[in-house]
Design goal:
about 35% strand; about 260 residues; alpha+beta; 10 strands; Alpha-Beta Plaits; 4-stranded antiparallel beta sheet
Length: about 260
């Protein structure tokens, strides 16, 4: 009888252990369900702000001028063409020296040499070599720029292009334009905020606009003179024309602001 009782106790304990183990496993695999009352709430507030943009333009008297010129020649003999272009190149440097323009202010690119072909009756035939070399010459005086244009324009095989008015101290002048644009933007933001009884807070964001940093070279007449074989023997008897060269430069700055507003 005692053995039978002991056997029943052992069986009962085994069943109890089995039930307890299954309950623990089920508890470990249970996914907690969020209670609506305990759901997280986004407490971040949207900062009231105003967005404005302002643009500033200012015209300055040019204090530097860049004259563009080029040599364009042709010859069937490449060595002869190279020699001829060298003579024209030396002439440009000689004119610059005569006008007391430093050699370092005469910039030149490499000579571009192209072969010209004809295709008469479907036959490819060499015609000549075409050579081109471009120059940019910087001068500090409008009168000297006009004198340079005049001197180059009467030389055969030298084309004189446009003269650009520029500024030596563009960076420092641009800073003053940016400062003025920033001040104008803040005044504009304060005006709009004040119209509804609000005040400005901290600056949230700042950026630039499409016209920021734009340099406008005020247009004068475009000077484009060419002397080639058709003008041999001709001379341009006129004084240097300063009116053909622009003498002012306009700088611009555009700023975009997002500023906090407070009631």
């Amino acid at each position: 009888m005692s053995q039978k009782f002991s056997y029943l106790v052992i069986v009962a304990l085994a069943v109890l252990c089995f039930i307890l183990v299954n309950q623990k496993s089920a508890a470990d695999n249970t996914v907690p369900v969020a209670v609506p009352g305990n759901a997280p709430v986004n407490t971040q507030m949207v900062t009231p702000s105003i967005e404005v943009n302002a643009t500033e333009f200012k015209k300055f008297q040019a204090n530097q001028f860049v004259v563009y010129a080029s040599i364009q020649m042709a010859n069937r003999d490449k060595s002869v063409l190279s020699q001829q272009m060298g003579e024209r190149r030396n002439k440009i440097f000689a004119i610059a020296k005569e006008l007391e323009i430093p050699e370092s202010d005469v910039q030149q690119n490499s000579v571009e040499l192209r072969k010209e072909w004809s295709y008469r009756e479907g036959v490819r035939k060499f015609v000549q070599y075409n050579g081109t070399q471009n120059f940019s010459i910087t001068v500090d005086d409008k009168q000297n720029a006009a004198n340079l244009v005049e001197a180059l324009s009467i030389e055969f095989d030298i084309d004189v292009g446009r003269t650009i008015a520029t500024l030596k101290n563009t960076d420092s002048l641009q800073k003053s334009i940016v400062d003025a644009a920033g001040k104008k933007a803040m005044e504009k933001a304060a005006m709009y905020a004040g119209s509804v009884g609000a005040k400005l807070g901290k600056i949230i964001n700042i950026g630039t606009g499409y016209s920021d940093g734009v340099v406008m070279h005020d247009a004068g007449d475009v000077m484009l003179l060419s002397n080639g074989p058709m003008m041999k023997g001709a001379r341009l008897n006129r004084s240097a024309d300063m009116n053909a060269i622009a003498d002012s430069v306009t700088l611009s700055a555009e700023i975009r602001l997002v500023v906090e507003i407070k009631q």
